[in-house]
Amino acid sequence: MKTIFEKSNGTDGINLTDEKINLDFLPQEFLRTKELGLPQVSELEVMRHYKELSDMNFCIEKGFYPLGSCTMKYNPKVNEFLASLEGFNIHPNVDEDMAQGSLKLMYNLQKELLEITGMDAITLQPSAGAHGEMTGMMIIKKYFDTIDQKRTKVIIPDSAHGTNPASAKMAGFDIVEIKSNANGQVDLDALKAVLNEDVAAIMLTNPNTLGIFEEQVEEISKLMHANGSLLYYDGANFNAIMGYTNPKKMGFDVVHLNLHKTFSTPHGGGGPGAGPVAVVDKLKEFLPVPIVEFDGKKYFKKYDLKYSIGNVKSFYGNFSVLVKAYAYILMLGKNLKNASENAVLNANYLKEKLKKYYELPYDEPCMHEFVLSGEKQKHESGVSTLNIAKALMDGNTHPPTVYFPLIVHEAIMIEPTESEQKEKLDEFINTMIEIANEAKINPEKILSAPHTTPVKKIDEVTAARHPDLKYTIKEK
Ligand SMILES: *Cc1c(COP(=O)(O)O)cnc(C)c1O
Fold this sequence. Notes:
Shape: globular
Distance between the termini: 18 Å
Number of helices: 16
Order of helices and strands: HHHEHEHEHEHEHEHEEEHHEHHEEHHH
Helix content: 25-40%
Bound molecules: pyridoxal-5'-phosphate
Structural class: alpha/beta
Strand order of the largest sheet: 1-7-6-5-4-2-3
Number of strands: 12
């Protein structure tokens, strides 16, 4: 049978039984009348095909992955093994009696995350950071509705991740943006100037997206609470402070964590992730349901929360992600704080070594990440941050996050994570220095990068304006 697949050569890759199967019980109109045009290749060729595709991808198992804000730490393979244990592979509607192990795992994970964040109650349901933000904003909205206060505004610093204003808006709030000060932190005067009885909350990331710790966070918390407002903690950068401090101590009321960042579960390509949301005591009745509880004998799902915002995802969220995060937490135990310590150490090492070669707009001690600027290279030789990012791909490195945060021109946001050893960091430093030198003496090489990847330099403008989304087979 002729197929439209270029590798198909008519070889059967499978052995189906010759036995005729009686399909009389199926209504005629549901039966296929024409043969299905599936590709036909041998098992070995299928394996080669998928291996070839996977080799075209970049992953941390292949090289350094300093994608700022995304915490691309190594995901221990034992987590995958544990998440695939047969006992965890159960239907979400199975009786509680038959799911005690899975419920216990979720209960224990809730407890660990509450201890780590210092908060009082938690849901594991949201499936990403942004989803957690929206859940948190919905909780805040319902809280003020319940106490009969009309608060319509949410304050967000200009360094925030784009999901923050999007989530607040989706929950029905208006956004008030405030500028950062010269140290890259919240400008207290700017904050005071917008505070009034319309303000429901502030959304803060700490350390912020510049990798800088908001030193005035306690003062911010006092100001907000004195105004009757709440504080939302975007926990995407939690990897920097884990075990050293927590959002409760800083005065936050609602927090999300990104298990797929801080707690080593795989991400990229859209998930699945998990963005648990933890709250202070006065907000616990607003959480999505169910939450998992223990009565001393039995683990059970609790649905009767007085003001629950309802469900934000079916069942309990992405369960296999929860298993992996729990495994990671148990594996590190009290050493969890070493992960933060080494993440911060690695980032500061890179920052100090690279600041002679690239502009460092905020020259402050950083936390787990820092932001360089490609302005100097752009000005001197026309080599932009995008070109630098592409050139890094030739050095077997995933490009850092670029052009974010928006408040830094030509931003290059670098987050090494704790996973890497000094040798790897030194390799990266050398590659970055080589690129800076090359930009001066031979800019053409950087401008035309990448040279060694499966897909070379692409025309970004045409790709954006006239995307070619149809796959056409090349004639053999
Ligand atoms: C990653 C990130 C988010 C969003 O998290 P997702 O899990 O990608 O939805 C929000 N804020 C910051 C600062 C982030 O880095």
